[in-house]
Amino acid sequence: MSRAYNFSAGPAALPEPVLEQARDELLEWKGERASVMEVSHRGKAFVAMAEESEADLRTLLAVPDDYAVLFLQGGATQQFAQIPLNIATPGQAADYLVTGAWGQKAVSEAKPYVNARIAASTEEGRFTDVPDADSWSVDPAAAYLHYTPNETIHGVEFHALPDSGDVPLVGDFSSTILSRPVDVSKFGIIYAGAQKNIGPSGLVLMVIRRELMERSGQARAKILNFAAQAKEGSMLNTPPTLSWYLAGLVFKWLREQGGLEAMAKRNQAKADLLYAAIDNSGGFYRNPVAPRARSWMNVPFTLKDAALDSAFLKESEAAGLLALKGHRAVGGMRASIYNAMPIEGVKALVDFMADFARRNG
Ligand SMILES: Cc1ncc(COP(=O)(O)O)c(C=O)c1O
User: Fold this and answer.
1) Closest-lying ligand 1 atom to the alpha carbon of residue 195
2) Catalytic site includes residue 102
3) Dist. CA 75 → ligand 1 center (Å)
4) Structural domains in the chain plus CATH codes
5) Which of 225, 315, 343, 357 might form a disulfide with 284, Cβ 3.0–4.6 angstroms?
6) DSSP code of residue 202
7) What is the pLDDT of residues 184-196, one digit of tens each?
8) Closest by alpha carbon to 350, among 269, 295, 292, 290?
9) Of 95, 136, 172, 325, which one is the catalytic site residue?
């Protein structure tokens, strides 16, 4: 076995006990004499698993009863379009706080359907901070206010909930869902692609205030209709059964870890360790993000000389530290330290970084 510490931004590392359980029951699942991928999604065993996964998720996130939980497809990207289609009328104003590349994409994908307004953007500062609330221009008649609680590429995270007043708040939680507790009642919609903190790709988790599903929205096929999905238990068509099953195992693992309070403590400790290593490197490593907005999940950093990048990547990979190459929009390195990354992995990374700096400083 040569499994390494995997710092990939997504698809990302999964908890090892989850992979082990999946391996153990891959050929025969729950006495079905077939694998979970080979049985009907309408059969008793799968439906029971789906219900249990929703119940576990509701416990983890303390989801109030007036919210539905949906297990959708199409990635978070599809939601950039599907959300306006469901909760805004054609051309209605919809507001966006843009703090990085994913927020920008959410705006551009919504434009065919709504008057997507940028209520605030930190682009001028190269996406290294969150905007102060007094700088936002939110339209009280907007269908919703959309933001990205954690920008995966720029490593910028909101550490406080934006106050959207009476406008429903919509959060793209793709890279921070389940990393800490969140007050669901403050949101209209929370959604997240699965492939970082939930499970494998192919699944999108959505928590939506039921009342929003009563909005008429816009002309759309039934498969894109949240209310229709909710009515059918997210099984209007064949769901990604393997991804759903693995997400269910991850929810159980999170509960065994002590839930989201415990994960928040661990995640903060991991992030503190890594940022301290960067900040105390005498300028060898740098993270450009304002301390108040530094992500607990995705930590981009540059080396003092980009000519050292390829050696850093080659040597880190040889040391069992995978996928540290930064996104091309930001350059340098990026360490994604989601729930499944143990503190030992971050310790191994900071030790490697200190050693590399000593040898190349
Ligand atoms: C914050 C955020 N939103 C959206 C996406 C797009 O997700 P998907 O590939 O599931 O469409 C990503 C992917 O990395 C992301 O990090």
Assistant:
1) 10
2) yes
3) 7
4) 16-256 (3.40.640.10), 259-360 (3.90.1150.10)
5) 357
6) S
7) 999 999 999 999 9
8) 269
9) 172
